[in-house]
């Protein structure tokens, strides 16, 4: 049976200085972080992504290149479903996964419009939300093993942001299969406030929800992974936490 890990991705108040938006009905915009490292070819900029954001970008941000990771096939400039990470705190739990397991992505999002006023199930302040997942098409690849892959397997990762860095720096690379997706509706991980974890974190994952849980990888066993897949398939959510 499949297992899962969920990791934090996307724009935040440090990089590039704002969070992605979430609307009252749970629709959201995934906003990548900026690219901070040298690259073989120039990445797209925030302006080139053409994101329909309900606010103006801070001065200078529109011209910044983006670190397009995770890569979703249906996202601007995406070709496949790939993800890379240079940091051991994320790479280690990801490397424990196998083909057929799941890698979930969550982001901190800021409510806009009626959501910011506290109407509906979207949190009135910032919150952490699941925004997409990969079903692993193959075992995760340790960074040091990438060059020894057959050429066809290496090509799968050609458009990943870490493969485009000079030098390549990922400790792990992940490829998702065709069932992988970026969600239309975000699924809450926060409770009544952004810092309060809901049942998904405190009861389904191996995390206690203490401290800055929204920055940590979350691990899920086989039964909890099945429940998580059911959870993210919903189009609306209870005002406090997880489904029964």
Top keywords for this entry?
three-stranded antiparallel β-sheet, globular, 5 helices, alpha+beta, single chain, disordered C terminus, 244 residues, six-stranded mixed β-sheet, 14% helix, 11 strands
Explained architecture:
By secondary structure, the protein is an alpha+beta fold. It has one domain. The protein is built from five helices and eleven strands, in the order βββαββαβββαββαβα. Strands 1, 2, 6, 7, 10 and 11 form a six-stranded mixed beta sheet that branches. It is globular, with a radius of gyration of 17 Å. The protein starts with a strand and ends in a 12-residue tail after the last helix.
Write the layout of secondary structure elements.
Blueprint: E1 4-8, E2 20-22, E3 33-34, H1 46-49, E4 66-67, E5 82-85, H2 88-95, E6 102-111, E7 127-135, E8 141-142, H3 151-155, E9 172-175, E10 181-188, H4 199-204, E11 218-220, H5 222-232
Parallel strand pairs: 1-6, 2-6
Antiparallel strand pairs: 1-11, 3-4, 5-9, 6-7, 7-10, 8-9
Cα-to-Cα separation, first versus last residue:
21 Å
Low-pLDDT sequence parts: 240-244
Radius of gyration: 17 Å
Number of helical regions: 5
The tally of beta strands, per DSSP, is 11
Q: How confident overall, as mean pLDDT?
A: 95
Structure classification: alpha+beta
Beta percentage is 15-25%
Shape: globular
